[in-house]
UniProtKB/TrEMBL annotation:
InterPro entries: CHP03503. It comes from the Bacteria. This is TIGR03503 family protein. It comes from Glaciecola petra. Keywords: Membrane, Transmembrane, Transmembrane helix. The chain crosses the membrane at residues 385-407.
Amino acid sequence: MLFSSGFAFAQQSSAPTAGEQNKSNIYYEDVIVPIGNEYQNSIQLLNNRFRVDNGISEIAIVFFREYGSPPVVLVRPDGSKLFIENSLDDDSYTWFETDTYDMISLKNPMPGPWQAVGDVLPQSRVMVIADITLSAQAIPNVVYSGETLKQVAFLQNKGSEPDITPFREVISLSIDFVSTNNPEYPNFGLGSRTVARFEDNGLGFDEADADGIFTGQFNLSIIEGEWTPIFTLRTPLFTREQVNEKVVLLPNPVQISHHLADTDDAKHMLTVQTDETQVSLSSLILDGTLRYPNGDVARISITEANDLPKQIPLNNVGEGIYKVNLSAYATSVTGRNLMLTVPEYSFVVEPPPIIEPIAVATDPIIEELMVEQESSSEEEETLSLMHIFIINFALLVFGIAFLYALADKQKNPTNHLSLRIIRLLNFKRSKSAKDSIPAS
């Protein structure tokens, strides 16, 4: 004999009053009521049947089946059938299917006995999910950029925790920060930002698997301003939403500055303090790392509690970029414990400057003499260059003439240039002698 295994939740036509909503500060889409009485909801259902009462506007049912078996087929009270293949074209129902179960939402279902046909698990019972609510821990009214928050939200079904083990992989909780569009804050007009997404899977910061309690941590790495936190639980068939009071996200309250070493042998000094209007300086402890320009990494840890700014000496390894990454733990002025990621701080040590020659002031007379001396030196240098040029030119001409005469002598041994010059000189000399004899 096979039995139906599943859970169902339904929406009535009536809705909670505004007073009831304001009292719980929990907003959700559907009002969930049980199908049938307590006895019917806890017994095994024969022949995979369940009954829908008159006046129900929407129900959702999950049927668990053998791994890998095909989806079930739902049979209405009038004998007509619902198939997963037709769900995309029929607005009256929505179907979500995995290897082990079918999750089906029925809008305005036909009253009367329904039946599920398929390889459903034997010896299982109907689980009716009624009055599903989401309750999330409130976020503080004042938070800080870089702050890490631990958050807890949980589901309840008529005051008890529902068993969501079989379908936990399709349930997630997200936290969105929605800008209030207050023009006095930097986040004006930024819309919404998703800051976290949790699953009830027992991994990470989630404390227990499938217990209906979503636990996690997230870091507020968004722009400062005024935000409205919204918690949203999503499944394939329904959502639950809780809107918290607006919060103000302030800049990171931890402040860092530095002082460069005066000499090569001295150390650079890092100073860390807090905005004491927000965070107590005496409660501040630090942990982090320092990266030097040469690639070395040093650990930073300060656990001493006092009212003085924290001084951190840094080795002077020369020019380059020094980078500091810190996590801070402190107490706000309101007594709230804070975990903060401080924005990375860096500073640059420049190379030593090049010393230029220093000009010495001189007396005008001395300066004039120096100018004259420089001018005289320039003239002498010019004359020397001219003399060298003339001498070199004369030597060049003489060399060319000598080579020409030598070549001519070899070519014309009886009438070379030297002999012609000698004969020419003798001719001129004899002519001059004749011209000097007086006529008789």
